[in-house]
Design goal:
77% of the residues lie in helices and 1% in strands. By secondary structure, the protein is mainly α. The chain is globular, with a radius of gyration of 21 Å.
Length: 477
């Protein structure tokens, strides 16, 4: 099957692109950096607020909220205008950042991160939709590399910045810094022309679908996070929680299929290029974010590194992601084929992740394998955004951007929850506390073994993503 995407002949002047780039660069940076910012700061937060085992919810809470909100922002942006939806997302994000700064306990911080995620879920979606609104499909590869560089730099620079800030000041500054940045971003976005709304006849808000999606996603992630160490997998609470998540998910799909304009972008997922690409992005994000979140924690717990060292060890991954994204953008600009690069890049990334799980790890080897993984992972995000927007068409750019964001956020949430459950399920609470404050060789050996298994599992999952990417039909832009 071959899909020929819509094309446009008019070229975007450089000045128009620069104005667009300077408006959406900060929201993209804020959306990406706050997904990973606390990876190196988590041990320091746990020492101050307590409860290292539940600290994974600092990340999962943000990702869950942003996952739930992504399709809603996509629909609202298409209906009422993407610029105004982006401004609303920035306001919620800033309010959540303020609440995080004042957090007095672990679950206060988790709740504030959920509020922050309610805004963060719209930042990336609306920025990508605005790009698609202004830049025609054939020209997007030429510009997409710049946005891809901002995203990957922010995603992996988050732990680096977090480590540097925590090692010198307080983790609270990580959230306080968002406030002036969000204000600056809102000022730049206000300078863009107001977006045109695209209301389809009979289109509603599908509030029931939003509630069902939020409830099923929250229960599923809660089950994945708690089962195995808070209660047994086969226990009554585990079965009840999993069963309720499945029932709510079934009710959601049944409802969404019956609606002409559902909350979830099912009409896009019925198209094979978008369906297979989205499945690839889910597994890609699960593996990438498992690496970004747990590699810094591994360095600090298993290798006695500090937060700054852990963050700096992610720099090679950052370089690889930037190089891979930039090279992919240039390649697709020449070939017009966004479906091809992930097939090879994910194999490279999967091999590097497997090596992290089986090879004796030192600082140089972590850096080299991180560089290779980054080169491979860098082929996915630029191409997936281009492919799905091109196939969806101009009138559904918000829904298309939401589909990519939903797939990425779902994968990131699942990866953080599943691999967190794997690591923390293999290590006792006593060992975790001992490693947090420095432990003996036996304790560190058990902690290191758990992380190695998690990295190997993430590598295997990346190879499955590579296999799925080969099912994406030929798409030309």
């Amino acid at each position: 099957m071959q899909v020929q995407a819509d094309s446009a002949e008019a070229r975007v002047p450089l000045g128009v692109f620069v104005r667009l780039f300077t408006a959406v660069m900060l929201p993209i940076f804020l959306a990406a950096v706050d997904q990973t910012l606390l990876a190196t700061a988590t041990p320091a937060i746990a020492r101050e607020l307590g409860d290292l085992r539940d600290s994974a919810w600092i990340a999962v809470g943000y990702l869950l909220a942003s996952t739930i909100m992504a399709p809603l922002y996509g629909r609202l942006g298409d209906r009422y205008g993407r610029r105004d939806a982006l401004l609303a997302a920035l306001a919620l994000f800033a309010l959540g950042s303020l609440a995080c700064t004042a957090a007095g306990g672990m679950w206060w911080l988790v709740g504030a991160r959920v509020l922050q995620g309610l805004g963060g879920g719209g930042l990336m979606v609306m920025c990508q939709a605005l790009i698609g609104e202004i830049v025609p499909p054939r020209q997007r590869p030429r510009f997409q590399a710049w946005f891809g560089i901002v995203f990957v730099l922010a995603s992996v620079a988050g732990p680096v910045l977090g480590g540097l800030v925590v090692s010198r000041w307080s983790w609270r500054w990580l959230f306080a810094a968002n406030l002036p940045l969000a204000a600056l971003a809102a000022w730049r976005v206000l300078r863009l022309p107001r977006s045109e709304g695209h209301v389809q006849p009979g289109q509603g808000h599908d509030a029931a679908g939003v509630v069902l999606f939020a409830a099923s996603a929250a229960l599923a992630l809660l089950w994945l996070t708690l089962a195995g160490h808070r209660f047994a997998w086969a226990s009554l609470p585990s079965v009840a929680m999993a069963g309720a998540a499945l029932l709510l998910g079934w009710m959601l799909l049944r409802r969404e299929r019956a609606l002409a304009h559902p909350f979830l972008p099912l009409e896009l997922l019925r198209q094979p290029p978008i369906a297979w690409c989205s499945a690839t992005v889910v597994l890609f994000a699960a593996s990438l974010f498992a690496l970004v979140f747990f590699l810094p924690v591994y360095v600090q717990l298993g290798r006695h590194g500090n937060a700054a060292d852990a963050g700096l060890l992610l720099l090679p991954l950052t370089v690889g992601l930037v190089l891979g994204s930039n090279a992919t953008g240039r390649l697709v600009a020449r070939s017009g084929r966004p479906d091809v690069p992930p097939r090879y890049g994910l194999v490279l990334a999967g091999g590097a992740m497997l090596a992290l799980g089986v090879v004796p790890i030192g600082g140089v080897r972590i850096g080299a394998l991180g560089l290779l993984a980054g080169l491979g992972f860098g082929t996915v995000m630029p191409t997936s955004q281009l492919l799905i927007q091109a196939v969806a068409g101009r009138s559904r750019l918000g829904a298309a951007a939401a589909t990519v964001s939903l797939a990425r956020s779902t994968g990131a949430s699942l990866g953080t929850a599943v691999f967190g459950a794997l690591v923390f399920g293999l290590v006792s609470s006593a060992d975790l506390q001992a490693a947090l404050h420095g432990g003996d060789a036996a304790v560190l050996g058990r902690v290191t073994h758990a992380f190695h298994l998690a990295f190997a599992a993430a590598g295997a999952l990346t190879l499955v993503a590579a296999a799925l990417s080969t099912r994406v039909p030929k798409v030309e832009i």
